């Protein structure tokens, strides 16, 4: 059952990622990217990493995607910009991406081969949970967490003022 869910989530992630890069409408591409992030979080959960799955949902599928949608809506691109972007694309420009994808595919095949297999015994495996991460963050790195919180608060206030100014100009 777990392997079936893994293959389903992996298939959804791959298809949604392909739809993300092939859509002309930026909002549709962002929605497919959210689906990709949710499928990846399910994969993390299936691998026994619920903390990583929660971070994937909260940070990537939640906060960053909302930021992307906000910026996309603020840019307010019309049909003219979509036509201009489609004229800039040339199939020969994809050769670099195809080359890097091929190299990555060969690396994955090598890592899955028996020659590169690494034996992990149960006594060498260390499980780190959310409690250990939380204790480390809020003891050793408390100042850095506070600075990151202030930075995020500043970004939130700036985004609010930018959006508010944009609304006042449009009235």
Features:
single chain, 171 residues, mainly alpha, Four Helix Bundle (Hemerythrin (Met), subunit A), 2 domains, 7 helices
How would you summarize this macromolecular structure in one to three sentences?
The protein has 171 residues and is mainly alpha-helical. The chain has helices at 2-22, 26-46, 50-75, 79-88, 95-112, 130-139, 142-170. The chain folds into 2 domains: 1-90, NADH-ubiquinone/plastoquinone oxidoreductase chain 6, subunit NuoJ (Four Helix Bundle (Hemerythrin (Met), subunit A)), CATH 1.20.120.1200; 127-171.
Task: Please give a structural write-up.
There is one protein chain. This protein is mostly helical and 171 residues long. It has two domains: 1-90, Four Helix Bundle (Hemerythrin (Met), subunit A) (Up-down Bundle), CATH 1.20.120; 127-171. 79% of the residues lie in helices and 0% in strands. The chain has seven helices and no strands. The protein has helices spanning 2-22, 26-46, 50-75, 79-88, 95-112, 130-139, 142-170. Helix 1 (2-22) packs antiparallel against helix 2 (26-46) and helix 2 packs antiparallel against helix 3. The longest helix has 29 residues, at 142-170. The N and C termini lie far apart (55 Å).
């Amino acid at each position: 059952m777990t392997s079936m869910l893994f293959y389903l989530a992996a298939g959804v992630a791959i298809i949604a990622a392909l739809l993300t890069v092939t859509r002309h409408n930026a909002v549709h591409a962002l929605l497919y990217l959210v689906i990709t992030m949710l499928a990846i979080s399910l994969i993390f959960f299936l691998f026994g990493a619920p903390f990583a799955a929660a971070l994937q949902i909260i940070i990537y599928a939640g906060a960053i995607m909302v930021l992307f949608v906000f910026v996309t809506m603020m840019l307010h691109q019309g049909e003219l910009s979509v036509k201009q972007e489609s004229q800039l694309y040339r199939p020969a420009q994809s050769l670099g991406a195809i080359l890097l994808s091929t190299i990555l595919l060969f690396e994955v095949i090598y890592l899955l081969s028996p020659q590169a297999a690494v034996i992990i015994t149960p006594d060498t495996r260390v499980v780190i949970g959310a409690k250990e991460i939380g204790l480390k963050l809020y003891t050793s790195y408390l100042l850095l967490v506070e600075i990151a919180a202030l930075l995020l608060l500043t970004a939130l206030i700036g985004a609010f003022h930018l959006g508010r100014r944009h609304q006042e100009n449009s009235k």
